[in-house]
Amino acid sequence: MTIYNKITSLHLDVLKEIGNIGAAHAATALSDLLSTKIDMRVPKVEMVSFNEMMEFVGGAESVVTGIYLRIEGDAEGGMFFILPVEQANHFIQKLIHDESFDFRNPPVSELGQSAMQELGNILSGSYLSALSDFTGLKIYPTPPALTVDMFGAIISFGLVEVSQISDHVIVIDTTIFEEHMGDSETVRGHFFLLPDPDSFETIFRSLGVS
Amino acid sequence: MIMNTSTVVKVGIAQMDIAKSPDTIRTSGLGSCVGVVLYDETKEIAGLVHIMLPDSKLGRGNSINVAKFADTGIPAMVEQLKKEGVHSFKLKAKIAGGAQMFQFTSNRDSMRIGPRNVEAVKEQLKKLSIPIVSEDTGGSSGRTIEFDTLTSVLHIRTVNQGVKEI
């Protein structure tokens, strides 16, 4: 019997709210940074197999920019901010005022690289501090690391902890997109929050739904 | 007219399967995971296992998915190939993967899972006396690999370095 068998619809609502609050703060931060209107979707909370997870952003081979950090402290887990490369290029070109910037064309400029890193810092920082305020849990993010690679290669790194007890993962997935670009498949960014299995009880307890 | 009837057998994360000539067998988006191909070139048959963790002792769940771990996945693959009439002493291996996708300062063990997976795979192959013919491991890039049972060539695609053959 693992925590996965005990999750009820009330628990799922709590996890949704966590995704909602975290991503809303991050979307606001991104909006301010780029002076663009950023919209977000109601988070999806799903328990999926590892292979289903590969399909979340266009399959294991689709090339994306990925920012990953570990969450440590009262509750542990992994967090990803995944952007399709075109969208990442668009954001960074805007930030550094260089329209030729392209992650698909390495080696990329140091300025662009660190702008992306900083974007990751700000977004994941605002996501997690909102989460910490909401739950009252002390959580410490590791500095985010950035890579541009196949989605499968990136996300499987975040499944290592979970894989020790299961072939399924509970993922809190919030998508964000630029308003004027519409909600099209190609331009969506994703925040993925993957709590370690041992952390669910802590999270639920902190919000009084244990 | 010669019809090309070969198909691609796809193997997901923590899964394994077998392909026979003229088919190919592939797994996509290997990061810290290791793709292990065990093949008999005379029989033109190959098994591919997508290893995620080094050791089944790490498993804390109720049921074990043998394909997930190096120490259980490789022997299970050998057994499956034996059922197809392959002699284990004929088997050779080609391996790829085990990247360090992110550079971290954290000293958590799980952060260097790629190199640990590679070590565990090699140890297991040594134990079973299966020679490693070629490998493309480590680094910091994701890989998609496809093994051709006809030629015993392993094609490896990365995002920035194109395709290589080992």
Please specify the SSE layout and strand pairing.
The complex is a heterodimer of chains A (210) and B (166).
Chain A: H1 9-34, E1 38-40, E2 44-49, H2 50-53, E3 63-73, E4 77-84, H3 85-96, H4 110-135, E5 139-141, E6 145-150, H5 151-158, H6 160-163, E7 168-178, E8 189-195, H7 199-206
Antiparallel strand pairs in A: 1-7, 2-7, 3-4, 3-5, 3-6, 4-8, 7-8
Helix pairs in contact in A: 1-4, 3-4
Chain B: E1 8-10, E2 16-20, E3 24-30, E4 34-40, E5 45-51, H1 70-83, E6 92-97, H2 113-127, E7 132-137, E8 143-148, E9 153-158, E10 162-165
Parallel strand pairs in B: 1-3, 6-7
Antiparallel strand pairs in B: 2-5, 3-8, 4-5, 4-6, 8-9, 9-10
Helix pairs in contact in B: 1-2
Instruction: Return the structural class of chain A.
Output: alpha+beta
Low-pLDDT regions of chain B: none
Rg from Cα of chain A: 17 Å
What's the overall average pLDDT of chain B, rounded? 92
- Quantity of strands of chain A, as a count: 8
Order of helices and strands of chain A: HEEHEEHHEEHHEEH
The biggest beta sheet of chain B is recorded as: 5 strands, mixed
Shape of chain A: globular
Biggest interface? A-B, 34 and 37 residues
Strand order of the largest sheet of chain B: 1-3-8-9-10
How much is the average pLDDT of chain A? 88
Number of helices of chain A: 7
Radius of gyration of chain B: 15 Å
Sketch the topology of chain B as an H/E string, one letter per element: EEEEEHEHEEEE
Strand content of chain B: 25-35%
* Chain oligomer state: heterodimer
Helix content of chain B: 10-25%
Give a structural overview:
Chain A is of the alpha+beta class. Helix content of chain A is 42%, strand content 26%. In chain A, strands 1, 2, 3, 4, 5, 6, 7 and 8 form an eight-stranded antiparallel beta sheet that branches. Chain B has helices spanning 70-83, 113-127, and strands spanning 8-10, 16-20, 24-30, 34-40, 45-51, 92-97, 132-137, 143-148, 153-158, 162-165. The interface between A and B is large, with 34 and 37 residues.
